[in-house]
Design the sequence.
């Protein structure tokens, strides 16, 4: 009888200890496309922040400290052919099975993010997304604040991307007097949409648009478009691409000696490995990085600190220009909001998040009424999208002026 | 017009190289190898690994990749396809399943991103017909012509090549002449895979090696072969010229946006008007009946 009682007591004790230790953690979910570079690195960046927070004892909730526990799930919505419903199922699984208290990073595809917002509302789960860029997100949150109060975005959106490119074009116009542009975009909604916004802006601001070409995803030959740019006398080519094969555009730009500056967004050409892969073919190209911190900027030490910490932890540098530093900051912003709220009550934490005013690797972190991270030209007052130019294997910041450490240089064949 | 001509020709040569291996395998063994695109991509990643991980010279890496991928093609036939040969639907399902497995495994093991680029054989560009063209693209035209000529010599002046043609024309009669159709079919799969690897080695330096490229290559090869007539090498050349120039003219005079549907429109038109393809003989008799 004594043995039975001992075993029973031990089991009870074990169950109690397990339950007690489970209470010590806050499960942070990372539902994203883990096999795509932005998702993979954003996941690692969020985990880095969690490790740092846990190393300091965790998050203070009222009078007790709790550790973060991370649960990542590959919802694959950034991959071709994966239906939105599959991505949503993954998020629900994370919330219901893994008991995620909050999520960061999130969806790649805009339509998946907009649909997922209802799930976050249904389960009262705070989500701080760092990838999908659809402007509709901000409009929805602002219009139905009570419903979508749990959804936040810690990354650039298409509207701010266009604003950054517009600033860059003004800068080019000021330095060189150029006012003839050729737009080349990937034929996907966000890129073509940004291209259309830019076409309108160019026309309204005294520029001539000599052509606007949309390339199917996977395109490897850009010669026809480049010939149109040259025959039209384009002084600037504005590329907007996130497909791996878009590096070919730069190779052909160089081999065909097209006399135009190349300034825009080509995601595969942001990381340091781009120079290893493409070498001098990309020399002179100007590229928008969606958020500070994804590249280190000397003029803004928090971006350099995050970049170096990431490199030290994972033995490689950040290669993606989007969502990575935002994911790192998102975890800190969430932890601060929990501490300020003093509770894990999602309604209260979501309310505190609205008042966020913090220094992050992306710049100063403040959200708009629609829960969108606000961007500007100075990291002391807002988040910033820096623009750099590849020069002999180095990334030289050229815009905005608050963080620039060099002026734009023309490629060799234009001098 | 000069630049359009040059780049149209380059585009056509790329299509020829992409489709030749698929066409050869189908023409000889009758197997529609839906793993063709995956083999192309695997060859690219394999060559990249030899160069960047094992630090072998490019030419040696390319040769090893072509031989190993060719051998893998033979094994694919010997160990999998030989059991289902003649069951067309089973062949398509099996090869497509292999394609999915290969491509998704590559994705799973982290072959993502833009760092996977192969070096060009010769760097630089030259001015031709009022435009600059990189030498690698010109080499593709040259290599395409050499491969076509080599295939002609192989199929007309070697014992194995004649056996290939024998099997392609009438398998049962060839059997009575002592030609082993299983052996020839496995070789055709091997040479088809090797041609796919060769295409990867010369075309991929223009851009990057990507997993999704495998699906595009399969669709391109299928379109070219069906338009030209499955099994007809000359048909592949004609179809490549038509589609290659049509794509270039579309990009020049309409928009690059529409180039993606050019091959599919050509496919639809040919399937509607002449299902056996421009120079295909395999179904011609059925069509007449």
Sequence:
């Amino acid at each position: 009888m004594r043995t039975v009682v001992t075993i029973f007591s031990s089991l009870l004790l074990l169950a109690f200890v397990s339950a007690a230790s489970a209470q010590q953690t806050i499960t942070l979910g990372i539902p994203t496309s883990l096999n795509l570079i932005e998702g993979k690195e954003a996941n690692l960046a969020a985990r880095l922040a969690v490790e740092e927070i846990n190393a300091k004892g965790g998050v203070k909730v009222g009078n007790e400290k709790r550790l973060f526990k991370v649960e990542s799930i590959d919802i694959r919505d950034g991959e071709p052919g994966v239906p939105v419903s599959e991505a949503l199922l993954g998020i629900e699984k994370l919330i219901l099975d893994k008991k995620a208290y909050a999520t960061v990073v999130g969806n790649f595809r805009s339509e998946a993010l907009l649909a997922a917002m209802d799930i976050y509302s249904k389960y009262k789960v705070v989500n701080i997304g760092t990838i999908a860029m659809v402007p509709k997100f901000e409009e929805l949150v602002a219009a139905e604040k009570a419903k979508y109060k749990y959804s936040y975005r810690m990354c650039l959106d298409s509207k701010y991307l266009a604003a950054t490119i517009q600033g860059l074009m003004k800068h080019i116009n000021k330095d060189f007097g150029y006012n003839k542009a050729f737009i080349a975009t990937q034929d996907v909604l966000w890129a073509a949409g940004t291209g259309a916004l830019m076409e309108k802006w160019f026309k309204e601001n005294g520029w001539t648009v000599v052509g606007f070409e949309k390339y199917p995803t996977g395109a490897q030959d850009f010669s026809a478009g480049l010939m149109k740019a040259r025959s039209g006398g384009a002084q600037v080519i504005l590329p907007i691409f996130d497909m791996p094969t878009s590096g070919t555009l730069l190779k052909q730009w160089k081999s065909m000696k097209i006399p135009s500056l190349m300034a825009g967004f080509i995601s595969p050409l942001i990381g340091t490995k781009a120079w290893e892969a493409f070498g001098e073919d990309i020399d002179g190209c100007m590229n928008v990085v969606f958020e500070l911190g994804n590249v280190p900027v000397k003029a803004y030490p928090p971006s350099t600190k995050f970049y170096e910490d990431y490199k030290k932890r994972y033995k490689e540098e950040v290669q993606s220009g989007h969502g990575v530093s935002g994911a790192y900051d998102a975890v800190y912003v969430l932890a601060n909001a929990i501490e300020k709220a003093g509770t894990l009550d999602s309604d209260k934490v979501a309310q505190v998040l609205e008042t966020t005013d913090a220094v992050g690797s992306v710049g100063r972190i403040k959200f708009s009424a629609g829960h969108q991270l606000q961007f500007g030209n100075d990291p002391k007052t807002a988040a910033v999208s820096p623009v750099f130019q590849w020069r002999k294997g180095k990334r030289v910041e050229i815009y905005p002026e608050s963080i620039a450490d060099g002026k734009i240089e023309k490629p060799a064949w234009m001098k | 017009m000069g630049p359009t001509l040059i780049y149209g020709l380059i585009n056509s040569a790329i299509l020829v190289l992409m489709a030749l291996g698929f066409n050869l395998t189908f023409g000889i063994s009758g197997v529609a190898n839906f793993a063709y695109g995956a083999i192309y991509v695997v060859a690219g990643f394999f060559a990249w690994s030899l160069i960047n991980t094992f630090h072998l010279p490019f030419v040696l890496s390319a040769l090893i990749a072509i031989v190993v991928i060719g051998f893998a093609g033979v094994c694919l036939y010997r160990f999998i396809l030989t059991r289902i040969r003649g069951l067309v639907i089973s062949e398509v399902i099996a090869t497509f399943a292999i394609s999915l497995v290969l491509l998704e495994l590559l994705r799973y093991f982290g072959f993502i991103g833009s760092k996977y680029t192969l070096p060009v054989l010769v760097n630089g560009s030259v001015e031709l017909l009022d435009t600059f063209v990189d030498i690698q693209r010109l080499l593709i035209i040259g290599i395409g012509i050499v491969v076509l000529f080599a295939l002609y010599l192989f199929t007309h002046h070697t014992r194995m090549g004649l056996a290939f043609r024998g099997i392609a024309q009438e398998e049962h009669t060839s059997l009575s002449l002592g030609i082993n159709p299983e052996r020839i079919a496995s070789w055709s799969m091997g040479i088809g895979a090797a041609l796919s690897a060769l295409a990867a080695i010369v075309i991929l330096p223009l851009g990057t090696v990507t997993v999704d490229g495998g699906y595009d290559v399969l669709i391109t090869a299928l379109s070219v072969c069906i338009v030209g007539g499955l099994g007809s090498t000359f048909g592949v050349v004609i179809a490549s010229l038509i589609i290659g120039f049509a794509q270039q003219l579309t990009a020049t005079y309409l928009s690059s946006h529409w180039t993606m549907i050019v091959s599919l429109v050509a496919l639809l038109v040919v399937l509607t008007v002449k299902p056996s393809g421009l120079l295909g003989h395999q179904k011609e008799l059925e069509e007449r009946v």
